[in-house]
Amino acid sequence: MKLITATGQNVEEAVESALAQLNTTREKVEIDVVDAGKRGFLGLIGNRKAVVKVTIVPDPIEEALMFLKSVCNKMDVESDISVKRNGKQVLFQLSGDKIALLIGKRGQTLNSLQYLVQLVANRYSKQYLTVLLDAEDYRIRRNETLIQLAERMASKAIKTRKSISLEPMPSYERKVIHTALMNYPKIKTTSSGTEPYRHLIISPIERS
Predict the structure, then answer these.
(1) Are 105 and 80 in contact (CB under 8 A)?
(2) 133: exposed, middle or buried (C-beta count within 10 Å: 0-12, 13-18, 19+)?
(3) Among 128, 133, 110, 4, residue whose Cα is nearest residue 60
């Protein structure tokens, strides 16, 4: 955080001085009034200037974006990054020639990077943000794969009358499968284990 101490004839003047020196706006800072100042006799004798400390508050999305760009540079991946925020959810969409390096096998690299970006964002955010990281619409293709997997495993569980454990997945991927099987009356889905090894179990419902 960048902090500056400024003075003025009153608090407002001191704050304006600090904002000018920081080249920022009031909405992006925290203001701590050290001394409100004092106007002396006839405005001359006993005057004491106001003192304020003004701190620039890091923007969580900008900090997350800088971190993401830094990782891309270290991996020698040139990428264009767009950011979309919808309430408490933030989507970082990446595109570029070597983007497959950021996705990794079954999206493992992308999932790990998403986790780190979310940690950075929430380090600076006053409210919890859910970060979603996508690369060349990988998430859309992955969701389609997960839905197909869910349907195949549900059919297998019904046919064999045995529960089927899937591989560990992040929470949003488990949710895709949960949602895909909600309309299967002969199937129930439960989560088991602890992160990052938490996984889904697809079980047939025994009828009495």
Answers:
(1) no
(2) buried
(3) 128
